[in-house]
């Protein structure tokens, strides 16, 4: 099941082994959004269609489904990734003509679009995927993957300051398979969680094991926090900083199931008892709920593929969008201040999220 979830990376690899890497800056621009999300007034979830040509929005319970971005030409890698202050979003566009994955930054207030790779130092090649925001909204991390003529795979993690346009290479992983393309910041902005191979590999090596690592936000002090004989992937740090949700094969090599652990790797527990096939969980800002892509093809316990909403405390879950993929909570408009009450009777404040003004942020953006 793990191989299926890595299909985007591995399929691209097989197609490119006999070809040169694409230029880093070539890609279709993203289509214009169909809705002003800065005016949202209820908890909202974004997700991608299975084909990848649309990013759609829906209410937290799966209702009011509608198109947010997509014109049938540009194909997206994953959903939209929302800045903590609700003013920006990042999307990754795949251009099949150029075979390139490019992260774009959207200003939700002005409509301005920025190709993040235009700020990249010259000479860089490969795919750039899965943007992830620092809690202060100043940095966007991205993953760069490329292949050489010997079919060896290399993945490096970068971060870019959206105000100073400064790129920082966080890691140097020669001959590493790109894993699940997941990066997750700790809520204090001091650390970043990611998954990676235990050791270098050849592209056709099937005997692989992934672990979850945590490093300082400057790329230093990389620590393996799972180190289990079975694969662990898709780390997702809770907004309260206490927990990390992740996927693992540790109880069943054929079922990638959802687990939860303390942020230091201790206290691992299976989140869902049924065998599942899952992707990264996205936490609601109050750490009470998650959405994730999941399902199971086990004939004894089938579970439709789609977007699931789960309550962290009770472990109760509900399929809210059959066939949906890559769900994220929309942190824009009033929706980012609202929480989902299990009783359905009220909405509560998500707490204080800093509303830093752009000029003040730019003035302080040179830190690190």
Question: Could you explain how this protein is built, in words?
Answer:
The longest helix is centred in the N-terminal third of the chain and has 10 residues. It is globular and about 45 Å long. It is mainly beta and 368 residues long. The chain has 3 helices and 27 strands. The chain starts with a helix and ends in a 5-residue tail after the last helix. The strands form 7 sheets. Strands 4, 5, 6, 7 and 8 form a 5-stranded antiparallel sheet that branches.
Quick check: average pLDDT? 80
Strand content is 35-45%
Total helices: the number is 3
Q: List the helices and strands in order.
A: HHEEEEEEEEEEEEEEEEEEEEEEEEEEEH
* Amount of helix: under 10%
Radius of gyration: 19 Å
Q: What is the oligomeric state here?
A: single chain
Largest sheet: 5 strands, antiparallel
Low-confidence parts lasting 5 or more residues at pLDDT below 50?
1-24, 342-368
Structural class: mainly beta
Instruction: Characterize the overall form.
Output: globular
**Number of separate strands:** 27
> What is the CA–CA distance across the termini?
39 Å
């Amino acid at each position: 099941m793990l191989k299926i979830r890595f299909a985007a990376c591995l399929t691209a690899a097989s197609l490119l082994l006999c070809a040169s890497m694409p230029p880093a800056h070539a890609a279709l621009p993203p289509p214009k959004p169909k809705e002003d999300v800065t005016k949202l007034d209820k908890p909202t979830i974004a997700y991608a269609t299975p084909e990848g040509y649309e990013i759609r929005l829906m209410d937290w319970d799966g209702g009011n489904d509608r198109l947010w971005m997509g014109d049938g030409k540009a194909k997206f890698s994953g959903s939209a990734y929302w800045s903590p202050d609700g003013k920006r979003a990042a999307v990754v566009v795949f251009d099949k003509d150029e075979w390139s994955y490019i992260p774009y930054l959207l200003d939700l207030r002005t409509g301005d679009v920025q190709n993040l790779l235009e700020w990249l130092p010259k000479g860089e090649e490969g795919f750039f995927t899965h943007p992830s925001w620092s809690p202060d909204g100043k940095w966007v991390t991205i993953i760069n993957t490329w292949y050489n003529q010997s079919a060896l795979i290399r993945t490096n993690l970068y971060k870019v300051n959206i105000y100073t346009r400064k790129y920082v290479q966080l890691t140097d992983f020669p001959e590493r398979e790109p894993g699940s393309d997941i990066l997750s910041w700790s809520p204090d902005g001091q650390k970043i969680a990611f998954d990676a191979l235990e050791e270098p590999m050849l592209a056709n090596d099937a005997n692989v094991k992934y672990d979850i690592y945590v490093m300082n936000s400057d790329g230093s002090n990389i620590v393996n926090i799972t180190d289990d004989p079975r694969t662990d992937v898709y780390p997702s740090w809770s907004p309260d900083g206490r927990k990390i949700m992740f996927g693992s094969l540790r109880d069943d090599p054929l079922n990638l199931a959802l687990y939860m652990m303390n942020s230091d790797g201790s206290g691992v527990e299976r989140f869902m008892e049924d065998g599942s096939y899952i992707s990264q969980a996205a936490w609601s800002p109050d750490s009470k709920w998650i959405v994730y892509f999941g399902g199971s093809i086990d004939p004894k316990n089938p579970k439709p593929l789609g977007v699931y909403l789960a309550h962290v405390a009770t472990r109760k879950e509900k399929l809210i969008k059959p066939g949906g993929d890559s769900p994220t909570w929309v942190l824009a408009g009033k929706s980012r201040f609202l929480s989902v009450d299990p009783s359905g009777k009220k909405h509560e404040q998500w707490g204080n999220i800093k509303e830093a003004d752009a000029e003040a942020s730019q003035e302080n953006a040179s830190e690190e």
